[in-house]
Amino acid sequence: MAVKKNNNKRTTVRPASNRPTNFYYILGAIALVGASILGYAMTRKPNAAVGTEAIANAGPIGKAEGYLIGKPDAPVKIVEFADFECPGCSQFATVTEPDVRKRLIDPGLANLTYYDFPLPQHKNSQAASNAAACAADQGKFWEMHDAIFGSQDQWNTEATDNPKPFFQRYAERLGINVQTWETCFDARKHQGRIMANAAEGERRKVNSTPTIFIGDKKYEGALPYDALKAIVDSATKK
Amino acid sequence: MTRRMVVAMLALAGIFVATYLLLYKLGMIGHLSCSIGSCETVNTSKWATFLGMPVAAWGVAFYVVLFVLALVSTGERYAESKGMAQILVVLAATGVLFSGWLTYLELFRIHAICQWCVTSAVLIAIIFVISLLEMRETPAVV
Lengths: 238, 142
What we know:
heterodimer, A: alpha+beta, Glutaredoxin, five-stranded mixed sheet, 12 helices, 57% helix, B: mainly alpha, de novo design (two linked rop proteins), two-stranded antiparallel ribbon, 5 helices
């Protein structure tokens, strides 16, 4: 009797019935879907901030030249690549940067250089970069930078197709000679410089904004003040 | 379809989720984007590295081990092994604790939520519950 029972048991654990073919099909399907998604994500990686076409249309590419705030010979140099229309950059500019300026830049511990890195999905970002570059001609880059970031939701792609009147209003408010500013803005006078700044970002393998470089280290994302201060402190000690 | 097979399937899905995060961390995936409240913030935070390796790499290794064990456990030899069921539960519990810690960091320290990290946390929680049910139903005597 006992022997018979064992025999029965043996027949119920046949390997074939233990792992049905369906199981392998499903595993295969999961592997296929997973591998396809990963493969797609890896090939899709875009490398150009503004697209080669846009660079080709912009005439001669200028020389990369950021906008400096702080003492040129400060011991630590912070380099920021940012997009005026990126919410992460706006967060950095409005929440973190006031502390950075007051506690690191003003006392001469560090300086900061801003480079444009307009992302293709932000249609008004290049206009914003031009608006700021034209303000820089009159020594008001950082004032314009703050005004643009501070009111990002009013002039961004979601809000308007024509951001110029907004920038013009900021220029007026900041005491900029609006006529000169407008001529500069309409002519896209600094487009070459903006493209060159973006190209410099690509050269440094920037692929998201804001990206901050301190020394030769790259930090992606809007670093909070404490984290940035710690990095500056350790760079100072070197 | 046994519960262990479901565990194996979920673990396989987990391998891909963790691999995605790892490739992101290594800079092989990623799009031009602005970083706010998302995986960039989480995956570039100081907590994204654990014992000198990216957390995502630990995730990949973890899911690979779990997948292999779950797959082996569905075989004839271990089909009724209580010990194997217990190993799966202990492994899954470790994963749940680690994921719980990471989710805590996301919510209260980094203040950003990464959808892929949450996906992984949900996967391991489901795996844990299924392995626990499985273990309770596996007879103690082989």
